[in-house]
Amino acid sequence: MYPTVFDKAAQFAYGLTENHGFVDGNKRAVIHSMMVYLLLNDFDVIADEDELFQVSMGLAAGKIFSAELSEWLKPKTKKFAKERAL
Questions:
Q1: What's the number of domains the chain is made of?
Q2: Is residue 85 part of a domain?
Q3: Is residue 60 over pLDDT 70?
Q4: Widest pairwise Cα distance in the chain
Q5: Residue 13's domain is classified under what CATH number?
Q6: 24 located within any domain
Q7: Which of 16, 29, 43, 79 suits a disulfide with 38, CB 3.0-4.6 Å?
Q8: 10-54 tens-digit pLDDT
Q9: Beta carbons within 8 Å of 82's beta carbon, 6+ residues apart
């Protein structure tokens, strides 16, 4: 259903945003969770705090959807070498 790691990360973030899992801190938790998911899949998000803030606000306001977030992530990530140490 979500063929790429970017599609999966975007849908994960979008779904968490829509379900308001926490009383407070949903936007921060969503961005952090998405970034951890990508790190676990050997990708690092290369974006400054302002860009991440704008994405989180766009998701929360319903102005950014899963497909748009997936497209935003593609040029904003860097693949790690397989032998990286944790």
A1: 1
A2: no
A3: yes
A4: 39
A5: 1.20.120.1870
A6: yes
A7: 43
A8: 999 999 998 887 778 889 999 999 999 999 999 999 999 999 999
A9: 42
What are the CB-based long-range contacts (under 8 Å, 24+) for 50-56? Answer: 51/76, 55/31, 56/27, 56/28, 56/30, 56/31
- The residue type at 44: D
> What CA–CA distance (Å, rounded) separates 49 from 84?
25
Residue 84 lies in a domain: no
Residues pairing with 45 in the sheet: 77
Residue 74: give the domain boundaries. Answer: 5-79
The pLDDT assigned to 86 comes to: 57
pLDDT > 90? residue 83: no
Pick the more confident residue, 83 or 63.
Answer: 63
pLDDT at residue 84, rounded to an integer: 57
Q: What is the 3-state secondary structure (H, E, C) of 61-73?
A: CCCCCHHHHHHHH
